[in-house]
Write a structure and sequence with these properties.
Low-confidence stretches of chain A: 312-321
Radius of gyration of chain B: 34 Å
Mean pLDDT of chain A: 85
Number of strands of chain B: 11
Largest sheet of chain B: 4 strands, antiparallel
Strand content of chain B: 5-15%
CATH superfamily of the largest domain in chain A: Multidrug efflux transporter AcrB transmembrane domain
Distance between the termini of chain A: 14 Å
Low-confidence stretches of chain B: 481-485
Oligomer: heterodimer
Shape of chain A: elongated
CATH class of the largest domain in chain A: Mainly Alpha
Structural class of chain A: alpha+beta
Distance between the termini of chain B: 31 Å
Largest interface: A-B, 86 and 91 residues
Number of domains of chain B: 3
Largest sheet of chain A: 4 strands, antiparallel
Chain lengths: ~325, ~475
Amino acid sequence: MTSSSGALLREPSFRINKYRRFCLVLTIVFLILSVLGLLLSWLSPIHAPLKPGLDFTGGTAIQVERICSPSCASFSMEELRKTLPANAVVQTLDAGKAISVRTVALSPAKSGEIVESLNRVLGPIQASDTQINTIGPLLGSQLLRSSLLALIVSLAGIAIYISLRYARLYAAMALMCLIHDVILTSGIFAWLGLLAGVEVDSLFVVALLTIAGYSVNDTVVIFDRIREQQQVLPDLTVEDQVDRAVAGTLKRSFYTITSTILPIIALIFFGGDSLYWFAVALLTGVLIGGWSSIGLIPPLLPLLGGKLPSKSSTDNPELVA
Amino acid sequence: MTKSQGWLALILALAIGSVLVLRSLPLSLGLDLRGGSQLTLLIKPAGAIKKIEPNKLEAVKDVLERRVNGLGVSEATVTSSGEDKIVVQLPGVQDPRKAAEVLGTTAMLEFRAQKPDTEQEMTGLMKLKRLLVAKLDQLVGRDKKGPDVDKSLNELLKSLNLNSPEGASEQQQLEAILTDTNRRIVSLFEAPAFTGTHLIDAGRQQQPNSQAWEVTLRFDRIGGDEFAALTKSIAGTNRLLGIMLDGNSISEASVGPQFATAGITGGSASITGQFTAEQARNLEVQLRGGALPLPVEIIENRSVGPTLGAENVRNSLVAAVLGIALVGFFMIVIYRVPGFVAVLALCLYALFNLAIYALIPVTLTLPGIAGFILSVGMAVDANILIFERTKEELQDGNSLFRSVEAGFSRAFSSIFDGHLTTLISCAALGWLGTGLVRGFAITLAVGVLLSLFTALTCSRTLLRLVLSYPALRKPEFFLGSPSHP
């Protein structure tokens, strides 16, 4: 740590704390909108903060692809319904080329019968394109429990790690930031569920956990920068420290977010139906995570007053060349 | 520079090794990519057993494994999951109905003697059962030209004064009556004399002059003795020998008076229910595999057709290639020479990643591939942190070589922290998640660990190599955007 520190001494070209009020108001507005979405979803017929998919409710989803050459033969919905269990939900996709049926959880034998009757009524169907998913109701609730537990364990793990490596205040900030990311991403999906019927499945939970693990990266970069600055410029005000750290890392945060988003965009456009909403959740989460590490934590830190905690940097793992 | 050359040799060796691994070991694809069925069976506590102990789980798994082998599906796998679940994967199977039937039943075989003085009741019930089965066959169209059973069936139903559930279709009513009849038949038998645990083999054969199949049984010595004793006790009477499977009577046979002295000896028997070829085969597979020590229930069934799987592979491949290309383009535009080095490191990263998938082996599922694609974006993050740091050092007027070295060592702490937090999330996912979720967690974790290696070692070694060429040793190649002169 003897070499130059010119970059640290330079006046910051951008001061995030000038925009503190704007950032905080924006965050609060986003949070209110998200919580509103989750609440409305709870009050609506969905009866849950997010519209649960098959993975959580349990049930059977069958999707068949019709052979349409030259054009799809017409069929009667009436007749189709007669062959299905009483409260089955039928959906046509892809301009009638594909049919999906949702019912309560069925045995493999019953699902097979439904595929056969679909073939009779809508036929012919492309047998090798058929997809059957059955999740028992018991498994669904188990999955929900373990998903929530995984989320809590992962957030706690990250917070503990940061408090060990930096300081408890930073850990609390990072945890707040992560909870903010989870609430906002969930809020967007609550609105999507209300307005477009988008459901969340176990992949959504995976997306949330991935976001939690990833979005803390940008936050850590800023913490790391503050710690480094404190050694060179120990007498700066908190506000100045934070502003310098943000300005010094803004570009790299922007680039790392972009480089992570690019493959996700490829996934959204070319990854196929099964990964579409997963990729959308990742994209929203990464963007929100980027926002919270730049627009939420830095404006909040000076408000907490006092001095920023600093741990001696000698316990940093250093790469030995 | 010898140390750097050592690294270079190591990286080259790893790259060649990876290519060789990938050429000899195929990547294993999950069922969502190759098509097939996955059944998850939940083991249910029964009787005195309230909690599934690991040895019970293992015992159930063994039985299921033998049954799966009997199904003749190539590359089928049976794995335990959690404390009380078994996952059966059947590649290429589109319709898991038969497998579900074979795997999902307990297959507890019991041999029972009919209770004394119930002959008359039994005769009536057996006749009713025959008629019901015939009528049901006609109703569902299995048997079109059977004899007219309506009259005698109706008479019998009336005489027995049976109540059928209101508002159900004729078929459902008759099925309900049949279930009840079966239950009554079973109640006319005594407690089991012995069970299928004494079975050593099962087979099947077509009955002479008939479409029907029978299932042959062979007992061990104790079973043979028990069977002889049982048959001896009812030989010559009108009492029947009942063979029950999971509490349902599948065959009722009379034993002729010639066996009254010694019973049926020889340690073998056959079940001559009216089996179809398929039913006989299923029963044979189940009996050979043995009865399940605890009942199971199929709680998850995921079946994907092979065309759909191939489409998933195509989609995710396109997304992966495009993702890498976009990131590569971005890096070269922003960072020029180091960007190019980062892209090389990224390609090595992808190669090593795939080789590790083949080696462990990691079964690639759709979410798994998504994890891989995502880790590509994260892998270059480390490079970005390093290069930005290098730029700063350059702007401070340091020499190129020194700036690059400082970039690597100064950026390390935040890179390390960032990777570790992602790993913490992966650990939570892998520990608590199942199936698909775990697949994602594993590929992301492998990716994150590898990216630490490639970003810090490969990029660094390659960059040093680049720096050894004077033509490339110009700061403007490293600064990229000339924002700070």
